[in-house]
Specification:
Layout lengths: L5 H9 L5 H19 L2 E4 L1 H16 L10 E5 L26 H8 L3 E6 L33 H8 L6 E5 L5 H7 L2 E4 L19 E6 L2 H11 L17 H7 L5 E5 H4 L4 H16 L3 E5 L7 H16 L18 H12 L2 H14 L4 H22 L5 E5 L15 H5 L6 H6 L3 E9 L2 E8 L5 H14 L12
Parallel strand pairs: 2-3, 7-8, 7-9
Antiparallel strand pairs: 1-3, 4-6, 5-6, 5-10, 9-11, 10-11
Helix pairs in contact: 2-3, 7-8, 7-17, 8-17, 11-13, 11-14
């Protein structure tokens, strides 16, 4: 059962080979068996899930079947869930119970999915390793001494370990794609605005985008069709029509011209480079034309991101003051001490670091020197991508600089940690869609291939990913010891 894809499980449920209740119990049992090693869930919603599964079985018996009826799903604990704790991996929100559902949750519920729990994450989505969570770090199913990536590490680990067939995530600078790469699964970040951000707790509003984790490109296509579309509650959501991504990714031809940025290959680890060259040979055998391109400003992506994102987070997180909601300190003398003590106790070190950096970058005398220049670099990166897409259909490269690193290896060096996203941040700055799919192993740990498309070209990305998975089996590899 744990080797089956989301689409295969959906067919099993529709053909009544298995009931939704049986499937849900299967995953809940795996969570009980393995998650004490992984720490991928903050909250397991067993009672809620079994109630929903019974309802799903009744609907299936009546022939009332939607896209995801009876399918269990894990939700990143950044999405508000009505009546269920939403912590964002922080002490600040450790007891927060939302009065409403995020739009992503709402749409998945409407399609009949069953939430089995809320997954662990870097605090307020700030991190690249899932080591900043108030609820403890997540372990990589491939090597329990390694990180799963972040910030959506809990979601990625849960899918990689088959504790859930699919999961939601969010991506601000690579937080879906990088953990997908490190755990050997598929992770899709859609175009900015393709999926509503309403009810998704904000980190950096101009960069954040909801997305999904699954085992195959086809699974991602199905999920994307469910969560996409305009939302009047989100002023940044797009009004563009939502295609049937699953049908399109199955029927589109292989994109003919694929660009490889030379900057992505400079100083690339030898083992990663060897795996990537095998990918290029495979793509050529699929009649793809591989073209060298240049994205010169991508080298500045991490630097620009580490100004823009903290600046936005310092604004977004100012609402957590101990008064309206969130952690509230005890034994304070006045309102000023309440603010200071509540925020000092409620936020972890990485969140504090980014708030301070962002506040500094926005302050008088430094706005022009830092924030304005970072926004200019952002525009330059976007322009270079636009120019590249006039000559190529898609852009590819490694998702991450290397395989998963050891827990604690980079916690004392924030710069080294930030460079984990060196290949992913530019797409967020430009608002582009991208997917990471498994492309090989190095030292028995997975590596991801990143496929980047032009705005709203998710179908092309998914089509290439699907066809690559038809001729390779990297996406079928599973961590040993968790079967």
């Amino acid at each position: 059962m744990n080797e089956k894809t989301l689409i295969e499980l959906r067919e099993d449920i529709r053909s009544k080979e298995i009931s939704s209740t049986e499937l849900t119990k299967f995953y809940l049992d795996r969570i009980k068996k393995y998650d004490n090693k992984l720490n991928s869930f903050i909250t397991v919603t067993e009672e809620h899930a079994l109630e929903r599964a019974k309802i799903a079985d009744l609907k299936i018996a009546k022939g009332e079947v939607k896209k995801l009826t009876g399918i269990p799903i894990a939700q990143k604990d950044i999405f508000c869930t009505k009546g269920i704790k939403t912590t964002c991996g922080s002490k600040m929100l450790s007891n927060f119970i939302s009065p409403y559902d995020a739009t992503v949750i709402e749409r998945l519920n409407e399609e009949g999915s069953i939430m089995i729990g809320k997954t662990n994450m870097d605090e307020f989505a700030m991190g690249s390793s899932n080591e900043t969570s108030y609820f403890g770090n997540v372990h990589n199913p491939w090597d329990l001494e390694c990180v799963p990536g972040g910030s959506s590490g809990g979601s990625a680990a849960s899918v990689a370990a088959s504790l859930a067939p699919c999961a939601t995530g969010t991506d601000t600078g690579g937080s879906i794609r990088q953990p997908a790469s490190l755990t050997g699964i598929c992770g899709l970040k859609p175009t900015y605005g393709r999926v509503s951000r309403y009810g998704m707790i904000a980190f950096a509003s101009s960069l954040d985008q909801a997305g999904i984790f699954a085992k195959t490109a086809e699974d991602c296509a199905l999920l994307l069709s469910c969560i996409s579309g305009y939302d009047r509650k989100d002023s940044t959501s797009s009004k563009k029509d939502v295609p049937d991504y699953l049908e399109e990714c199955r029927n589109l031809d292989v994109p003919k011209k694929i660009g490889v940025p030379i900057e992505f290959l400079q100083n690339l680890d030898e083992g990663v480079a060897k795996v990537f060259q095998e990918v290029l040979r495979e793509l050529k055998s699929m009649n793809c034309e591989i073209v060298d391109i240049s994205l010169k400003s991508s080298k500045l992506g991490v630097s620009a991101y580490q100004v823009v994102a903290p600046a936005e987070c310092s604004s977004n997180l100012s609402r957590y003051d101990g008064v309206r909601f969130g952690h509230r300190a005890d034994n304070v003398k006045d309102i000023l001490e309440l603010y200071k003590k509540s925020r000092s106790e409620g936020f972890g070190n990485e969140v504090k670091r980014r708030i301070l950096v962002g506040t500094y970058a926005l302050s008088t005398g430094y706005y022009d020197a830092y924030y304005l220049k970072a926004q200019k670099i952002r525009s330059l990166i976007s322009s270079e991508f636009n120019a590249a897409f006039k000559n190529v259909d898609l852009i590819i490269g490694p998702t991450a600089p290397d395989v998963a690193f050891k827990i604690g290896e980079k916690t004392s060096d924030p710069i080294a940690m930030y460079l984990s996203d060196v290949y992913t941040v530019s797409t967020n700055l430009a608002g582009l869609p991208a997917i990471s799919i498994p492309m090989g192993l190095k030292n028995d740990l997975p590596l991801g291939l990143q496929i980047i498309g032009n705005h709203f070209q998710e179908s092309q990305i998914l089509s290439l990913a699907r066809q690559f998975q038809e001729v390779t089996d990297w996406h079928k590899k599973q961590p040993s010891g968790l079967k």
